[in-house]
């Protein structure tokens, strides 16, 4: 234990998203402290933890959207800058002003901006990709609808469609099920599972503990620090939940989760 | 030119000082209510009313300079401007900033149009209404100064009486309502005070820059204190000092614009405060941030050492080396060894405490970074260790 | 209208007013959508110290130096606002108020100190511009529009503004995608690797460019009004960004031309002898257009709850 270089732990080059020693702070309290995370390839990983645990911050810091105090990130074993085109990020629905003057197709086409560059005209192919992405989320009939007129679930679907249009390998979703109707939730999870089957990797910040086992195969539990990560069956345990949620998740609630047969 | 305290200079200084106090106190409420720039809309929107008041008074056969008429006119147009801002904000999809900007510029534009009409009127040429844009103390009369002083004193008194209700409203509107306060009335009173400050300040600071006296002192005060109870007296003091000093300075040379000098003195207070204020100043926060960053890296590095991981971060390596935890060749020193073990033990303790809901309150004493021995007594730590051993 | 009178006396100021209005309204659309309308207000205030400083340094009213000075002042103001906001965590509206009033006061002070010089530069000019005096002496009528000799003597403000407008339009077309994307969804734009801070700063610089070129000809009242009113009114007419831009261009054109005509001829129609401030009237008309769209605009209300 005396030598520094004894137990090498570098960033796993196989992992779509590997993070080492990530610390982020807003002001003078750490939002994340020394988080290590290695997302398994072709997995569906849930990031869970109590409110204010730094779940969204983890995604944003990984993408360089918020500055990091320390830490390294690798995407498919390489630097973020060279692999950005392989990532599709779905921000929280509430993070944008839906009163923006645009229609549904405009927003989905934004997913193709990376490919189109500054001046290339929108081609027939681009439109076909956008239409296909909308069809996948069941919104093909809404292409010309003003985005402000959509319900919460519909807004979430077109955010997802924008990410699908990017045709990425790694999908990072921030609370995709927050404030959506049951039908949308079912549609989104079916779609995410299809992505996984197609060889993509999905990471989602998730709030609802009761659906973790049904929706995801891997889970990372955080509360400023990483509590545990790995396959759901190994990580989603009473001990870890208690450590992550502390007093905020009463033993009774955990018992209820267990009785419901979730793990 | 040397500073000579003539009666006139003293009068202007006194008036400007009182005006500054009144503006600082009034501005604090607008600032705490996150409406600082609404004051800008109010002050600009007074211009058409001032001109309208003047024109009506001339039409009725007066000289057009009576303060009551100008005040009434500016109150009417400022109220119309506020109504327009509220309408755009609540009845259309436009946000408040666009509403403020639109009202400010179009009302001011209308005022300028009316100003050119007045300049073409025979009575208008001597009126000097255009001097009200930037203020002019050169030809200030004794009764002007007295009016300003009285007006400012009245504003200060009303502000003083209302400050508690205003602070409460700014802090938590719903709570203020629940206590039975008439929130719309308090808001209206604040706007009326802004209007009064604007009109009282026309001669000294002028219509365009008066908003500076309403914004800079409260923002400066905010840098010094996190408590509303201190912010408004500090803001009043800074406003008063700016008025007094600025008016004095501007009397040193003939063509120094009083309003601009007063604003620049206030800005000087702001700049100094921004650099050195302990609560939110730049130096203090830069130092706090560096210290915090070091703590994060130190802790993170020690934990990595304890777990035998390689430290990837160059800054962490340098820091640990500089503080004597590791040697240049990367080997832990004895000091590093014991610090790493302690950090690791603390981490285990925290993990244990976190999993016990009963300890949630207890744990909240810890900031998540420093040694546990700073947040807990030795007895408490011993107690935790015994419980942990029993549990494992 | 009599061409011999209209072409030399009214056509150039109207054209200059229109060009200035459009140049400001284009970036204004994005300022309004980003809820940074008051950055426009701030920019138009800090242009004054920038211009005066450039004048004090070069001792001449050189267009390029003034452009540079005003651009530097705008950049300085925006960076200061950002730094103070980050450090003090105070509401950004109040910080804007501190910064732009301070710089404006500085501009006034410098202006008064430099007023000993014979150059025509004063606060009134800064506010209201001198649109009415931008006449085309060589013009003899509509035919002069085809006469290269006469055209060469058009006020230089006209060509300068036209050039600025072309530049702004080109920049807008080139950066349309990053600009719209980062305006709508900054986090997503950043995840794609777009330099969102540079884009935001670039927008401010374009606004400053429009402000300073327009400022010299038409004064700061029009600049503020044109940043905000046409774009805000256009937002109430349509739900698509492209058509919003076109509406704002239309409203800017209408404000400038109608405002100028009303200021120049309106008083004569109602029996007064002298014309009134064109800059003020253009700002007033733009406000009236906004008022109309706020009551009648088909998209005046948000559809989201």
Task: Please describe the structure with a list of short key phrases separated by commas or semicolons.
heterotrimer; A: 263 residues; alpha/beta; Rossmann fold; six-stranded mixed β-sheet; three-stranded antiparallel β-sheet; globular; disordered N terminus; B: 392 residues; mainly alpha; ABC transporter involved in vitamin B12 uptake, BtuC; 2 domains
CATH H-level superfamily title of the largest domain in chain B: ABC transporter involved in vitamin B12 uptake, BtuC
| Named CATH topology of the largest domain in chain B | ABC transporter involved in vitamin B12 uptake, BtuC
Instruction: Give the overall silhouette of chain C.
Output: globular
Secondary structure: helix percent of chain B: over 70%
Structural features, described:
The complex is a heterotrimer of chains A (263), B (392) and C (305). Chain A is of the alpha/beta class. Chain A is built from 11 helices and 9 strands. Chain A has a single domain, classed as P-loop containing nucleotide triphosphate hydrolases (Rossmann fold). In chain A, the strands form 2 sheets. A 6-stranded mixed β-sheet of chain A has the order 5-6-7-3-8-9, with helices on both faces. In chain A, helix 6 runs parallel beside helix 7. Chain A is globular, with a radius of gyration of 19 Å. Chain B has 392 residues and is an all-alpha fold. In chain B, 74% of the residues lie in helices and 0% in strands. Chain B contains 16 helices and no strands. In chain B, helix 1 packs across helix 2, helix 3 packs across helix 7 and helix 11 packs across helix 12. Chain B is elongated. Chain C has one domain: ABC transporter involved in vitamin B12 uptake, BtuC, CATH 1.10.3470. The longest helix of chain C has 29 residues. Chain C is globular, with a radius of gyration of 20 Å. The chains are: A alpha/beta (263), B mainly alpha (392), C mainly alpha (305). Chains B and C meet through helix 2, helix 3, helix 4, helix 8 and helix 10 of B and helix 3, helix 4, helix 5, helix 6 and helix 12 of C.
